[in-house]
Amino acid sequence: MTAEATPALVEGPAAHPGKSGPAAGRGPRARTGTAYLRYAAGKLAGAAVSLLAVLVTSFFLFRLIPGDPVKFMTAGRPVSSQQLAAYRREFGLDLPMWRQFTDYCGKALTGDLGTSYQFRTPVIDKITEALPNTLLLTGTAFVLYTALGILLGTRSAWRHGGLGDRLNTGLALTLYSIPAFWLGLLLIIVLSVGVGPIPGLFPTGGMESGGKEGFAYAADVAHHLVLPVLTLVAVEYGQTLLVTRSALLDEMGSDYLTTARAKGLRDDVVRRRHAVPNALLPTVTLIFVNLGRTVAGVILVETVFSWPGLGGLFYQALSVPDLPLVQGLFFVFAAAVIVMNTLADVLYPLLDPRVGR
Description:
By secondary structure, this protein is mostly helical. It has helices at 6-11, 22-25, 27-61, 69-73, 81-91, 97-108, 123-158, 163-176, 180-194, 214-251, 255-262, 267-296, 299-304, 310-318, 323-351.
């Protein structure tokens, strides 16, 4: 080896200032940030395409429903053909289908979802009016069944194969397979109407009894809330339980848990601080999906319990059919799920850096 070559080996990175220093140290992090931005941009673009597809689908899908909205609104009244034609002109039903579609898309992109046929008010106003009631019902149920599912799923996985695990998973699978509306009707028969020695303890439906204010009003709403929330929790908690249990079982054989035990950590500390946080990643996705569904509510449950939310409003609009209201509600339901799914996809790499690389 010549003497001229020796300095190149000795100097190392110092001999190449362009490849050293702070810029070189930021290289991998910058590349990671760029990859995440590309990943997030792809997810947001996919969400935009999905929303556009929902907008188109919502227009054509509900026009397949049999029935004439104008004849429904004039049912029981003698109406001439000229009056029917005037109603159709008022609601734009006399226009060609392509013109109705372009008008609908143009207005929807500006936030105008049209005017309800039966209520003669803007669709967005009806949605805004019913949304808090739906969020109260499904939001309360969401918090309860998510917490219950994670708690019981964690305990079942940590003691898998035992009697408690078999009982938990068996009950969860049974309740998860029961139609929510059927369970709601059963609870109304048993706990509202009363069967044998069991008295009627709860209202059969509605959100309030009326004529109450302040704390009495809040207590009355809570009283009406019990059965529909119980129905949703019983049907929905099993999914969270099963996903949490499965994810935690996959983590239990990992080397880092063996290392944590070898360090002398108690079993509950290993479970709480090490196993559960990593196992909750699939559950996080499910939580966001369920969070999107809280806006939609459960149409049949709200209908069974006469709850004045978006689900009951959708059922009422579907029976006409009130096309602008049905289309608007369908778009809001789908948009909530798409937005929450996208948010979960965007946040997931922050919880697990392996995602999106």
